[in-house]
Amino acid sequence: MENSTDKTDRPDLKSILTSAVFVLLLLGAFLFNLLMPKAEVLQSERRRPAQWPKFSVDTLLSSEFMEGFSKYASDNFVLRDQLRTLRAAMVFDVFLQTDKSGLYKDPVAGAGKFEGINEGSMQKAAEKINKLCALFPELDVYYSVIPDKSIYAERYYPGYDPNKANSILAGPLGNLTFIDLAGALSADDFYTTDLHWDQGKIAGVAGVLGQAMGFSDRLDTGFETKSAGSFHGVYTGQLALPLVPDEMVYLTSGILDDAKVLYFNPAADAWEPGPMYDVEAASGRDPYDIFLKGVQPLIIIENPHAKTDRQLYLFRDSFGSSLAPLLASAYARITIIDMRYIDSRVLEQYVGMGAIARRGSMPGEPSAFELAVGEYRNFTGSGEFTISSDYEAIHKEELRILDEMAIQRKKTSDYMMITQLEKIKLLEKILEAKDTAAEELPLPRGRDAGAGYGFAKENADVLFLYSSQILNNSSSLLIN
How far apart are CA 73 and CA 395, in angstroms? Predict the structure, then answer.
């Protein structure tokens, strides 16, 4: 009898070819992903992709390298956006799930992301707000919370609870006046693809604030609606679904057209004029930057048609950018402060400096002449010379400095000569301010020009207006 075997232990040619093709595909995909140009920005998600991690023995042993590589790989692979869209479609349309990692697509509220209340963060936010209140002990202070739009959704999402949030804040902020905005809003007031509210639909919010703060009779309601085109909000990219775009509208009026807007530029330590609406930004990376140029630490809106000399200090996040223009008619000046981008320890040095000085300005405001005198004193040091409003005294001081320069020219250092020349320049500025007192002169510098002015002591309101997202992440507020 012959010995026979059913099959040899050697793999057949088909198995070898299959394995080889699979390995080649994996290797090819790896090399293609490794060599393909990397995007500087993930446009659909409005963020930068993870970068290749630093390699060393320490990072390898601590798993830091592998964690970094995992993030890098998930942000940089072929057909990434298309595969994300396929996954999202499977989650919502095939498996009929209500959310994808907290992201939802609701028939009423549109796209959004729900997250529970961070009680510790909200308590910390209240503590920070109380610290700022020490800057204006005699002013009327109010606070409002902008609820997450998920509370208006058709389905229930276990996220933000306005009643719980209000109870957390009520204790530590009991000395402030709370203005509840939840009843003034609906799902229709928010964009369907973004977390923000739509400026064209929040007149009711301005009305509720006006009733509580006493400026209803000064609110302008004669707005003209303009369109800046369609846009996709942040949730379009996060969900990776082809959502119907929103329309970006903004409101204008004669008062807003004539209003003066100043932005503080930290790099230049100076205030610079700018537009109320940056329409070009509507087609940029973050379309919501159309409102007051997006991320800004300090902004001042001055209303030349104001029927009052009252002013408002508005502490806000990005939601306040679209609301502030609707309040402009109710105040002579609105100072808009974003505590995510300016430290509370230097805040008072800058608040008040953006005002445009002019003859006949608001009671209590320094004139252009007084500001120029203040700048001279800041430069020379208090007590060196007291400038009166008399031309002769100013000219006399100017001649004294020139004589001093002539006498000491040979023994005066370059630094001292530059200092003396700067004094002359500032004195000329004082004279110019006196000659052109009726003209509007913007403050040239930041903290120096505004030294000593700070917050108003009276005839002003203070409003803390924060979204639930910021209160859930109070570490972003630079309040110490």
Answer: 70
